[in-house]
Amino acid sequence: MKDLELLLKNIKNKELLPIYFFHGEEPYFMDVAVKCLENEVLEEDEKAFGQTIVYGKDTTMAEVIASAQQFPMFGNINLIIVKEAQDLKWNEEDVKVLEHYIENPVPTTVLVFAHKHKKLDSRKKVSKILDKKRFLFHSEPVKDWSLAQWISGECKSKNIKTDPEIPVLLAEYLGNDLSRIANELQKLKIILKDGEVLNHQLVETHIGISKDFNVFELQKALGQRNAAKAMHIAHYIGKNPKSNPFVMMIGNLYNYFSNLIIYHTMPGQNSSVIAGAMGVNPYFIKDYAEAARNYPLKRATRVISILREIDLKSKGLGANQTEDSELLKELVYKILNVDQVKVKA
Q1: Does the record's keyword annotation contain Nucleotidyltransferase (predicted)?
Q2: Of 23, 49, 131, 153, most Cβ neighbours within 10 A?
């Protein structure tokens, strides 16, 4: 969500809007904003009479607007929060009622909608009015390529110092579940001592991600063309499919070799520029430089073809169904011997 920090700052400073309509595919940012409104708009002793929380499936738009039009019984503000607003049923009359209220909100009411998992239709009049009034806030998912960067920012905001590899490792293993990532980081913040740096050992101990047998180490071993280490890691990962889903392995290796191709297309550029194009921390450029020597552009392109071939096999296309553990070992072997294996066009 754009300008989330500014939005939270304004709420805490009591610079409030009459309407907040949060919508979009990513629920985490909405949860953060709504929680801030719950905590900051009213004092604890005002909440009993001034705060109303309802759920979309249990109410109607007409009831919500009727509540919003009431003046506070005590205090100066009525806070009305509609959670799971995507479950509200809107008929044409409801839409007109909402549009009218948006144009003429009650100044003593703060009306909040959390419309999760999907966007409002931007073509609709109600969306255009909300947007024009700057009451509409779109909560977009963090793109996979920028997830590690987002985690790094969250660590900084929580004053968690990390080794450079840690945001990448967490992104690869926790995926795009921002709520889970935030919870894990909060847990780590409580555990870490003052000045302690979050490293692989702490991540392995408290989150369960192995510091030696993970896709990050597999990438590094493949980049170095260290056959013994890469096959050893593949064997271990294959024995722990729940902790290492094959689809995640394929996705991360595809991103890695795609980044390697980007590296080849930017000769002479400085590390920061290349890292920016890849969406990675500049710390890792030295690893890509080594991998680039082992995988020239033509070889890296062939690896992408191998990854696509194995991905199709994993989906049962063009071959008998093979266990993921065996497919991973086949994949690693073919990458290491990319010049000798046949690659399907």
Answers
A1: yes
A2: 23
pLDDT of residue 258: 95
Half-sphere exposure of 37 (CA within 13 A, CB side): 32
DSSP secondary structure letters along 279-307:
TS-GGGHHHHHHHHHHS-HHHHHHHHHHH
CATH superfamily membership of 4-138: P-loop containing nucleotide triphosphate hydrolases (3.40.50.300)
Rounded (10°) CA dihedral 247, 175, 152, 169: -50
Per-residue buried b or exposed e for 243-259, using 16+ beta carbons within 10 Å of the residue's own CB: ebebeebbbbbebbbbb
Question: Does this chain's domain 144-207 share its CATH topology with 215-336?
Answer: no
CA angle, 26 then 30 then 31, to 5°: 110
List, for residues 19-73, the tens digit of each pLDDT value: 999 999 999 999 999 999 999 999 999 999 999 999 999 999 999 999 999 999 8
Whole-angstrom distance, CA of residue 74 vs CA of residue 17 = 20
pLDDT for 217-263, tens place per residue? 899 999 999 999 999 999 888 887 777 788 878 888 999 999 999 99
Single pTM value for the model = 0.70
For 281, the token pair is 């921390």
Class of domain 144-207: mainly alpha
Q: Which of 274-278, 300-304, 333-337 is the least confident region?
A: 274-278
Closest CA to 292 of 283, 282, 301: 301
215-336 adopts what CATH topology?
Answer: Zinc Finger, Delta Prime; domain 3 (1.20.272)
User: Which two structure tokens, joined as six digits, stand for 245?
Assistant: 């889903």
